[in-house]
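Hey forum,

I'm writing up a methods section and want to include a predicted complex as supplementary material. The small molecule is calcium ion. I've pasted the protein sequence and the SMILES. Can someone with a working setup run it? I'll credit the forum in the acknowledgements.
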Amino acid sequence: IFMYTEMLITDLDLEHRVATKLRETLESTVRGSRCLVLITVCFQVICVLLLINNILLSLSRKNLETRVEYLTAEKDQLQRDFDSLNKKGPVCFFMSTELKSWSESRQYCRDRGADLVIINTDEKQRFISSLVSERVWVGLSDTENEGIMKWVDNSTLKQGFWLKGEPNNYYENEDCIELYYKRDQVEMSPLNSWNDQPCSEKKKGICEK
Ligand SMILES: [Ca+2]
Ligand SMILES: [Ca+2]
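Reply by user p_vandermeer:
Happy to help. Structure tokens for the complex are below, copy them as they are.
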């Protein structure tokens, strides 16, 4: 009986150890499976992020290519404008360095043997627009007779490059003309950038010699 009992205990112990081992193996397998699922999910997330990144890069590259094409075309057009202007004789344009009224800006130019710029062709308008990055006076006004625009050489305006709705002689107090072109605003065009303003407004002027 004693021997039989000892054998039974040994068998029970063996069964217990086998059961423990089986449970540990099962738990380890479950942990492994969870790990595998987690790795798969991480991998899928990384794939999605890479895909999004590739799409964004592709869009960004397309935008850059369009911008480069636009700037190249603009540069070629400006070179043609510059060559065309130079055919009519050497030209010199410069901007005043201080903010002044229209009359003071004109005087600034005259003190340097020049006058406020006269713009009478598309190429000159485009070229002057390419030089400026702020609102500037040009040599046009209707100070003498309201509605009759005259250049500083006393010639009458033939072709205007007005912003939409201008000149509006706002508050019946706008007689001097500024060029207002922002090239980063797509709705603005270098051929539509003039506005009448009160002559006392302070801004720089474009001189032509
Ligand atoms: Ca006016
Ligand atoms: Ca105006």
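Some notes you might quote in the supplement: Helices lie at 2-87, 102-110, 122-131. Strands lie at 93-95, 115-116, 136-141, 150-151, 176-179, 194-197, 204-208.
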